[in-house]
Design a protein that fits this description.
23 strands; alpha+beta; single chain; 18 helices; elongated; 4-stranded antiparallel beta sheet; 552 residues
């Protein structure tokens, strides 16, 4: 039996030729719970509008400043296996729904922390786990009950939702600007394909960061921007209603794939070969000129001769653009990407753009293809004082766009600010009173654990935790007060409906599921075995510790 894996601490010779360290039972469970709690404590101050920032130095010496749960945990290096899986869940949360990365970690940590007392009272982990499962199912049903549907076309409401997602971030000073940017970008990218909504932010809403200027200069372009200049200085840099051709083949003489040798005996043959190369390029350019484009974009190179021919036809050419940018231009102006010049047809030309221009920003040239009629792709231009600020703003915008996408795909909302958690906690506590047997205690503990969100919000803005939390609990026992939560700025109780703080239902569901699942997963572990092969001491006689010399 071979154990591979990371060794925790130094091992002792327990099995044959191996250093194996084995921890089991209580020790492991408390260890896992402590690891999870530690990770949760790192992130705890990053929740809510009064969130603190973390500054991380990565091994390369770069600096990351952020309060996005996922970004922080990505940079932290951890040895403990349980802590690793905590970090994993914040990444899952980020990929799935894009928001709630901080809350999911805090919740998972708290779920484990409340389980600790049961393990000390000798309740078997599986009992705790089945109670947690029940609580999760009930919590999900309660969430669906308290959620309210939302009209996606009501712009004000959508802005409010995004606003409450951005409020906890560093960008909150420019919240209105960020909200409109996120909403416009997502609305642009969204398109329906026979009843199925598709919103691909990653591919078609590109964020371009240009240091310099001020944040207020940021905007969403109705089109695409590339960091490129024209290939020939005399080409036009400003074209109204351009006809655009997109290629992904090179406009230069093809070198053959295999190695070839040419033996030339007569010198006329040599000039003939050169002439053929020229004719080939001329042929390509004639194919392009035939459809009368104004702008040619290609992913590969353009030779000097080809530039000359295109120049004469008054065509602007831009070379070596990224494939992703090419796809975006295609979606923005309605062109098709062509692989061979001789297959160019009229309907491959994109005429949807209103303006092609090249501007100089800072000391670089940028190409803009803007004023598109019905763009399905867009570029978000971010301006800001420094790279660190821009990186943080980009992360915040990603979150905002994800939230907007979630609402468009599943238009249901739940109140934010810890209100949902308190409502669910209250409902679970009520339910646990009708339960019998041991399971009711862990079940009730889940309700307690949910209160951690509200508690952290109160802590982060420096109000008195116990007093506010008790009054909030009391408030939730009354009828029709399900939307009361904590005002993260001041730490007083407010009705979240009036403050307009909403979270998408999809985000909350994902948070609960992930947090409880992780807690269950870590409670299941009762043994950590970490082994390492011994160094070969006596001239290679100690072979791989196979079954015969590992007497477990």
């Amino acid at each position: 039996m071979k154990y591979h894996g990371r060794r925790i601490g130094c091992g002792h010779d327990a099995c044959g030729g191996q250093n194996v360290k084995r921890e089991s039972g209580k020790k492991v469970q408390t260890g896992n719970i402590n690891a999870a709690k530690t990770i949760a404590d790192v992130i705890r101050t990053c929740l809510g509008p009064r969130a603190m920032m973390k500054m991380l130095l990565d091994p390369m010496g770069g600096i990351v400043m952020t309060n996005d749960g996922n970004a922080i945990l990505r940079e932290i290096q951890v040895q403990h296996p349980a802590a690793k899986s905590m970090i994993e869940i914040s990444r899952t949360q980020d990929e799935e729904v894009g928001d709630g990365t901080t809350s999911v970690i805090i919740l998972a940590g708290e779920m484990l922390a409340v389980a600790e007392q049961f393990l000390e009272q000798q309740i078997h982990p599986t009992v705790v786990i089945s109670a947690y499962r029940k609580a999760l199912d009930d919590a999900i049903n309660i969430l669906k009950e308290i959620s309210t549907p939302v009209d996606v076309n009501n712009r004000e409401m959508m802005l409010k939702i995004i606003h409450s997602a951005i409020n906890t971030k560093a960008i909150s000073r420019w919240a209105d600007l960020a909200c409109t940017i996120a909403l416009d970008a997502v609305k642009t990218v969204q398109f329906e394909d026979n009843g199925r909504k598709e919103i691909d932010i990653k591919k078609y809403a590109k964020v371009e960061k240009i240091p310099g200027g001020i944040l207020e200069d940021s905007s969403v372009l109705q089109g695409v921007m590339l960091n490129k200049d024209v290939t020939h200085p005399r080409m036009r840099r400003h074209i109204k209603n351009p006809r655009i051709v997109l290629m992904d083949c090179s406009l230069e003489y093809k070198k053959s794939e295999s190695q070839t040798e040419l033996e030339i005996i007569r010198e006329e043959d040599f000039s003939r070969v050169l002439q053929m190369e020229e004719e080939y390029i001329q042929q390509i350019c004639e194919d392009i000129v035939r459809v009368k484009p104004d702008v040619v974009f290609t992913e590969k190179g353009i030779s000097d001769l080809a530039q000359h021919y295109l120049m004469k036809a008054n065509i602007t050419a831009i070379r070596r653009i990224r494939k992703t940018d090419n796809n975006r231009i295609a979606r923005a102006c309605g062109a098709r990407i062509v692989s061979r010049t001789d297959e160019l047809r009229e309907d491959d030309v994109g005429t949807g753009a209103g303006l092609f221009e090249i501007k100089k920003i800072g000391d670089e040239y940028f190409t803009f293809v803007t004023d598109c009629k019905d763009p399905k792709a867009c570029t978000i231009v971010l301006r800001g004082a420094s790279k660190d600020i821009l990186a943080e703003v980009e992360r915040n915008l990603q979150d905002a766009m994800q939230v907007c996408r979630n609402v468009l795909l599943d238009p249901h909302l739940v109140p934010g600010g810890g209100a949902t958690e308190m409502a669910v906690a209250h409902a679970l506590t009520e339910k646990s009173k009708s339960m019998t047997g041991v399971e009711q205690w862990p079940y009730r503990a889940v309700a307690q654990a949910l209160e951690v969100i509200a508690r952290t919000l109160i802590q982060n803005c420096g109000a008195s935790t116990i007093r506010v939390l008790t009054s909030l609990r009391a408030k939730h026992t009354q009828e029709g007060c399900q939307s009361w939560g904590v005002n993260g700025e001041t730490g007083v109780l407010t009705d979240m409906k009036e403050m307009g703080i909403w979270d998408p239902l999809a985000v909350k569901l994902q948070t609960y599921k992930t947090a409880v699942e992780t807690a269950i997963l870590l409670l299941r572990i009762d043994d950590i075995v970490s082994g390492q092969k011994k160094k070969q001491s006596d001239g290679g006689s100690s072979s791989m510790p196979g079954p015969e010399n590992t007497n477990e």
